[in-house]
Model the fold of this input.
Amino acid sequence: QVQVAESGGGLVQAGDSLTLTCAVSGWSFNSYDMGWFRRAPGKEREFVAYITYTGDSADYADSVKGRFTISRDNAKNTLYLQMNSLKFEDTAVYYCAVRRGSSRYRDEDFGPWGQGTQVTVSS
Done:
């Protein structure tokens, strides 16, 4: 059974950096593409970043492009999200998930979902 566990969130100030970690178990981690999503208060869950199973290609939402970097360590079954120059609007619960469907961007094509990790950016 696949399990994901996000960590690394916290309360930071605008302009700060934070690195999120996603530990994956029960799955051939190095065989599947992965993604980060987030859900801001009162909003739907949205795509943040995507990385191929080899780690050689990534894609980002326009809102985070140039500030966030997704990476993975297949030897450690771990996914990362380096977040720099954080903004108030980055405040959300962040989730990682395995891509199971055809889309890189729709959360319906990813899963399972963990509890997420809360990122709060004060302005």
Notes: Residues 2 and 43 are 27 Å apart (CA to CA). The mean pLDDT is 95.
